[in-house]
Design a protein that fits this description.
alpha+beta, transport, 7-stranded mixed sheet, peptide transmembrane transporter activity, SBP_5_dom, 24 strands, 3 domains, ABC transporter periplasmic protein, D-Maltodextrin-Binding Protein, domain 2, Dipeptide-binding Protein, domain 1, Dipeptide-binding Protein, domain 3
């Protein structure tokens, strides 16, 4: 699974309290028990509206956007797949791999008798190609597999993978590779990218570039259960109001992402059901540690004391998000059994205290006319959060210049390190079950100007600890390193953790046994060992 910058949906509301009031609602209220039909032989059809345009890349070696992946993940099976809590389970693999050489070699056994849609058997050579092609072809997914030094096909169903060095996330992330048929894919990569062949429960039926994708059930699917849904149609509906109007009117079956502004209306509808799951998303406020007043950690702490993140999330996002106290989302902590000291980290987070904020700014010698530029993606909750911070700074005698930007403009701006461009920015990141996705991409010095723009030099062994954790296969050692790194982040505050935005869907009440997956790219899951979606006509 590749980490990528997360795009948030629109929000509304304009609450003004900062008193640590009511608790934020629990997303588990929008998860449901299984519902199975009386008749197993079904031919249901489903339409699914996506909240963004697809890149229309359906080759797993190439694909790098979540909404192409939503289609792709029904066509391909993975070597290992993520369950509903982001744990990796064998799929094409026959059990867990044999680990050798202190985490530098892994031997995989492949189940026999699995076929691609064209009838070819899935072999170890196909798995090897799936691992190595992203690096060989220099695709956007190359970083996820760059630690692989070589692969050796032992026989048709046995593969050896050799790493350049131990790599902690390998068994939690990299092994989840989607398996493609090497011969068919390499024969015509362009054709494969828009008419792919996998071994998953669905295959392409019709595709109109920029309009829709239609999948049909593969009746010879090798695994159980076979899906109840016979046909599924994907269409992009990026306008929130239009998407909500369609689900409320019964003009579609399922939509991805319920905007916080429309949550109450959707939840109040008699014939629509909201489905939600925690996600590995991490939204954050980052400070320019390169230039300007925010190079002083006391100024950064002052900003943290100037408003209440808890109240902002409660008022503006409600059940759609949870506040965070570290760069590690709750589901990442739980799915990897990291057992991080979250309660201790919560105690380190700055509480709303405007007097303390004002005192810190005055003691730091911040000029009275300080009005830092805060940049954020326009039109969503992060821009609203920037405005909240600006209004709280105004209340204690300062101010802020809040600028909402297109995502492309923001990416070009936040990596400059220039105080004239920004002193704070708001962004997000979607990782997975391994903390490396957050710490390496967002804090390690090698990613300066790439995944980060805060230019934080760190104290002592900060960057070495991140790299050592990345190149270790010992989870206990990695845990201790990440605890040290997190406590420095909370102490020196190059970023202030904000919230994790949940994955949500809204469905007509006749859509049964639908469950939101933590990874947005796996929604709608349709069929797995814990669900098999069907339509109660």
């Amino acid at each position: 699974m590749t980490a990528s910058v997360a795009l948030a949906g629109c929000i509304g509301g304009n609450g003004n309290g900062d008193d640590n009031g009511d608790d934020v609602a629990d997303i588990s209220e929008y998860q449901y028990d299984r519902e199975e039909p009386d008749d197993e032989d079904r031919s249901d059809s489903l339409e699914f509206l996506q909240p963004a345009e697809r890149d229309e890349d359906f080759d797993p070696v190439v694909s790098f956007d979540s909404y192409s992946a939503q289609v792709m993940n029904l066509v391909f099976d993975n070597l290992y797949e993520w369950d509903d809590e982001m744990g990796l389970e064998p799929k094409i693999a026959d059990g867990m791999p044999e680990e050798q050489d202190d985490g530098e070699t892994y031997v995989f056994e492949i189940k026999e008798g699995i076929e691609f849609h064209n009838g070819d058997e899935v072999t170890a050579a196909d798995v090897a190609h799936s691992f190595t092609a992203p690096v060989e072809e220099e695709t956007d997914n190359a970083a996820s597999y760059a630690m692989i030094e070589s692969t050796e096909v032992i026989d048709d169903h046995t593969l050896e993978v050799n790493l350049e060095h131990p790599y902690g996330p390998f068994t939690m992330v990299t092994m989840g590779v989607e398996v493609v048929p090497e011969d068919v894919r390499t024969d015509d990569r362009d054709a494969f990218n828009t008419d792919p062949i996998g071994s998953g429960p669905f295959q392409f039926a019709d595709f109109q570039q920029g309009e829709y994708v239609e999948l049909e059930r593969w009746d010879d699917y090798w695994d159980e259960p076979h899906p109840h849904i016979e046909e599924i149609r994907f269409e992009a509906a990026p306008d929130d109001a239009n998407r909500i109007a369609q689900i409320l009117a019964g003009d579609t079956d399922v939509i991805d992402t319920v905007p916080a502004t429309e949550w109450d209306e959707v939840e109040g509808a008699d014939d629509v059901v909201i489905h939600g799951s925690r996600s590995p998303s991490y939204m954050y406020l980052a400070f320019n540690c390169n230039e300007g007043e925010t190079t002083n950690p006391d100024v950064r702490r002052a900003v943290g004391h100037s408003f209440s993140m808890h109240d902002f999330v409660n008022e503006h996002l409600g059940p759609a998000a949870d506040p965070l106290v570290s760069p590690v989302p709750e589901i990442t902590n739980d799915s990897g059994d990291w057992d991080f000291p979250v309660d201790d980290w919560a105690e380190m987070m700055p509480e709303y205290d405007p007097d303390q904020a004002q005192e810190l700014l005055e003691d730091a010698g911040v000029p009275e006319d300080w009005e830092p530029t805060i940049i954020a993606p326009e039109g969503g909750p992060r821009e609203a959060l920037a405005e909240r911070i600006g209004s709280r700074l105004t209340e204690i005698g300062y101010g802020a210049d809040v600028q909402g930007m297109s995502f492309a403009t923001l990416v070009d701006t936040y990596t400059t390190g220039n105080a004239d461009d920004y002193e704070m920015y708001l962004l997000g990141w979607t990782g997975g079950p391994d903390p490396d996705a957050y710490f390496y991409n967002l804090f390690h010095e090698s990613q300066e100007g790439v995944g980060q723009g805060h230019f934080y030099e760190g104290q002592g062994d900060f960057h070495d600890s991140i790299m050592n954790a990345r190149q270790s296969a010992d989870q206990d050692d990695r845990r201790e390193l990440y605890i040290d790194v997190t406590e420095e982040i909370l102490d020196y505050m190059p970023v202030l953790p904000a919230y994790s935005e949940h994955n949500t869907m809204a469905a007509r009440e006749e859509v049964k046994d639908l469950h939101a997956h933590p990874a947005v790219s796996f929604n709608p899951r349709i069929v797995s060992n814990y669900q098999n979606t069907w339509i109660d006509e």
